[in-house]
Amino acid sequence: MKPAFIPFEKAFLDVTGGNNKLQTTQYSPTGLYPVIDQGESFIGGYTNDPKSLCAAIPPVILFGDHTKVFKYVDFPFCLGADGVKVLRPAEGIFPKYGFYFLRSLILPSVGYSRHFKFLKEFEVPLPPLSEQRRIAAILDSADAIRTKRKAAIAKLDELAQALFLEMFGDPVRNEKGWAQSTLGEIGTITTGNTPARSEAGNFGSHLEWIKSDNVTNEYPTLTKATEFLSKKGASIARLVGPGAVLVVCIAGSPDSIGRAALADRTVAFNQQINAISPREDMDEYFLLQAIRYSKKCILSYSTNSMKGMISKSVFEGIPLIVPPIRLQEMYSERYTSILSVKKSHSATSESENRLFSSLQHRAFAGEL
Questions:
Q1: Cis ω for the linkage preceding 59 (within 30 of 0)
Q2: Residue 110 contacts by C-beta under 8 Å, 6 or more apart in sequence?
Q3: Would you place residue 147 in the very low, low, confident or very high pLDDT band (cuts 50, 70, 90)?
Q4: Stretch 262-266: mean pLDDT, rounded?
Q5: Hey, which CATH number is domain 128-170+324-368, 2.40.70.10, 1.20.1250.20, 1.10.150.170, 1.10.287.1120?
Q6: Is the pLDDT reported for residue 368 higher than 80?
């Protein structure tokens, strides 16, 4: 039986107004009260100020007006800076059911603008409370499986980092006294470019054109590009082959500076990225991880503008540890073994995500 529907504004009450909101500069790494904002991390920081506690009685649902992130909060908390909406499910809406419904919505993306207006356009399916609880319990169980899988993958990332630190120490402090070379000495540095969009035929389907979004710390290798060059465009683009390490050096947010990923295929790339094609006595997996764990050092070479930037000449001069190649290769062998296990977990995680999406769709279509 298909459920009845009610307008969004009757199902969820906006109780954001009147609450203190903490700026990120006011966050502490520890404290009595968690601060929840619109960022990807569930908790943004902490504070000891009880006057900053949100007045809304939990459970509530937080919505990132810019980020489109939903968070279910069932404990006292403080509210992060502007851009967060606090929604209280109305009477007749089981809170966890309402949360899963909101998280199932596909909202248009309008960049760093506000998205709450799009939520107001939806109607909410309203089965009996007993049915809402049943649906929420099913989705809770499926979501718990996904959460455990993510935790396992995160542990593998921690293991890879622990292995690196055990063998080589902190690459920035270099407490083990390894020899150092500049990035320009370690390999050939190439800065990407953008073939003229005004020239017909520069873009097509011949070769991937990598942007900074394809360089993430989540995966060792580049993600697949969404834009491709034609043969003509590739002939005037900057290319690198397998084994090159691509590093984000221009970004809208300084925090993105220093992200790195390995090319496992020949690609073109844009001017936000510098690529290192390492010399023969540098292992590419070691180089990748050494750069990732030197992110703070690399970021320190960026300009202090709102849009972080490291020029090619500055990038070439950044120092990096260079342990003996036999140790680099030993690390690479162990690290790729960890990657193999992570790949298996990631494939299972993708299957679990598809299952969860299917359950969500069926639940709110009245088919579960």
A1: yes
A2: none
A3: very high
A4: 97
A5: 1.10.287.1120
A6: no
Comma-separated ranges of CATH 1.10.287.1120 domains in the chain: 128-170+324-368
Rg (CA), the chain: 24
**Cα(250)–Cα(19) distance, integer angstroms:** 36
Q: Give the global pTM.
A: 0.75
Which ranges in the chain are annotated with CATH 3.90.220.20? 4-126, 179-322
Taking only the tens place, the pLDDT of each residue in 173-220 is 999 999 999 999 999 999 999 999 999 899 999 999 999 999 998 889
The pair of structure tokens assigned to 368 is: 């579960």
| Count of CB atoms situated within 10 Å of the CB of 260 | 26
Q: Which of 160, 158, 152, 90 is nearest to 126 (CA)?
A: 90
Cα(162)–Cα(169) distance, integer angstroms: 9
Q: Tell me the two tokens of residue 280.
A: 């023969």
* Segment 73-85 mean pLDDT: 92
Distance CA 182, CA 346 (A): 35
In terms of DSSP H, where are the helices of 179-218? 183-186
Residue 271 has pLDDT above 70, yes or no: yes
Burial class (CB in 10 A: 0-12, 13-18, 19+), 214: buried
Q: What is the Cα–Cα distance from 165 to 178, expressed in whole angstroms?
A: 13
* pLDDT reported for residue 255: 78
Task: State the SS3 of 81-103.
Answer: CCCEEEEEECCCCCHHHHHHHHH
Q: What is the pLDDT of residue 327?
A: 97
Q: Determine the distance from the C-alpha atom of residue 273 to the mean position of all C-alpha atoms in its chain, rounded to a whole number.
A: 18
pLDDT at residue number 217: 86
Assess contact for 334 and 285: CB atoms under 8 A. no
Neighbouring residues of 299: CB distance < 8 A, sequence distance ≥ 6:
254, 255, 257, 258, 308
What does the pLDDT read at residue 214? Answer: 96
User: Would you state the pLDDT for residue 1?
Assistant: 60
For the segment 302-328, the average pLDDT, to the nearest whole number, is 90
Interior angle at CA 239, CA 236 and CA 241, nearest 5: 155
Which three-class secondary structure state does DSSP give residue 123?
strand
